[in-house]
Specification:
The protein contains six helices and no strands. It is mostly helical. It has one domain. The protein is elongated, with a radius of gyration of 17 Å.
Amino acid sequence: MYTTVLALHSWLRWAVVLIGLIAIVRALAAGAGRRPWLPLDDRLGLFFIIVLDVQLLLGLVLYFVLSPITQAALADFGSVMQVSSMRYWAVEHVFGMVVGVFLAHRGRARVKAVSDPTRKHRVAAVFLILAMIAILASIPWPGMPNGRPLFR
């Protein structure tokens, strides 16, 4: 079960990254071109949130139920903070991703509250960019100390 959920979590990150980048490009282009807010813009933001929430759910299942790394970390959290690789999985990865999810949700709520279509795109772009920075910085890319393969 662990390897299946881990593989799904690994592959779903590409959907998160791709949809997030598409949403950012659309928001920047539409804001610069003063294009009105379209239903497609709303659906893209919603789809990004859905994929991000599924990714978070898989990550939390790994974190609290399936991962032997976090099971060991939760057993002795004080010692884990002294080992950088364990600290990354127990704290840093999770924290960065939760910040990214929070920013994406907060941005979606702020966009809904804005009535001016051009401003909607700017607000969406700001929050999407901030969310993607947190998410991309928290992904264990190959070559990093805790890096994982691009595809499992």
